[in-house]
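Please predict the structure of the following assembly.
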Amino acid sequence: MPVAHAVASGMNGVRAAGDLVARLEMAKGMKLAAAKQHVAERLGTSVADLADPLVMHEVRGELRLGRVFESETTYPHDPGPQEAKRNIAALLGLQIRGAGR
Amino acid sequence: MEPRFITRLGDGSATALTRSELRAELEEGTQAATAKAKLPPLEATELEHLLDIFASAARFSAVDIGDEVVLSFDGTGTQQQGSRVNALLQYEQCLAADTCELYHIDYSYKAVKTIVGVEQQAMKEAQERLTIPVHYGAQPDLGRYSAPDGPCGNWSELLPQMRIDDARAAQEEAVELAVEDMVYVATALWEAGADGINFDTAGAGGDADFLATLLAVERLRAADADMGIMVGMSGELVLGTHGRLEYRGTRLAGLRPAGQLEVVQQAGATVFGPAVNVNTSRSVAWNVARALTFMKPCTAVARIPIHANVGMGVGGVPMNAFAPIDAISRCSRACVDILRLDGL
């Protein structure tokens, strides 16, 4: 069920920018179009890039926002979740309580 | 002779219908909602688009590139994935989830209250290990407050005895207790780092259940302006098990999705999840057309994001724990293409 929905209509989560858009919807009650626009502006990308895993993989790496890895493509110097979330909070102007203090 | 396309019934079983038969199913589905709730039917262009989605031999269907929406999940993970937090991490790293939800298998705020420290610890660990938003969710579950499970009278027993006033009094007492439990648990999980709180299957116990949810949301919003709060509904109609309860002047019994959204917005939630239940003996096409007709009026009044419920047995998705992807993907796409929602 979750895989089918993710492939059919999801924003790809941390593989792209789905988690960032989701944060604005949940925390701010921001509608999808506005949330996508806000994230794209902060990332310096187009809205169309937000669900593109290749574009976002590079952007997330450069901005240290956390990203997926796999066994043959590892990123040992990428930030851990806590640091990544602090960077996301600063980027989006959000308070993320689980990002450590 | 018209070719037949494999499609599904609401229980997930396969059937084969022609394009003409699928068209009839879609038209009957939207008319079923129209007749039940006096809503406008889907437009001809919308029905034609749905027909193209369903009259296809493709195993999978998906939205256009660029039309992707946010996915929020209730009850994320399953035991085969190891620990609860391991399951959340797999959703993030391997399943492309936009968000995830920590939950306890006894998915009730009343039950969670007794183990809230354990849930806080699990949330703390989840926040240390995940980057995507981790929500906490459970159900208002008002029935738990009635005898023999709870301290209040059992309105399901009182109503058939025609003890209407006693049944109403019992529900009003249960509302007060449920609000306290939901506020207690939600505040505790928020303090532990949750990125949002989900009140799932709101209204399952009727208008009193829904009122308790709204009052809890109102108190949480008053206490913290930054809390993410999602209210997911249980169905396309709030049952009047009490019948007289109101929220800020709106009678809750009988509310359809657009009316539900109005009061959820007033209470202060940040995301609303409409739910339309599935008729297992009709086709998925019929169920999707019916569900979209019920949910469509929400889009006109929404000030907050709408995430349609498209899990097992709602939003057209078959009532089966192992629903086939051909049906799930068509429901997913249909909701996004027709309703232009903010998420699922």
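The CA atoms of residues 211 and 247 of chain B lie 7 Å apart. The longest strand of chain B covers residues 196-202.
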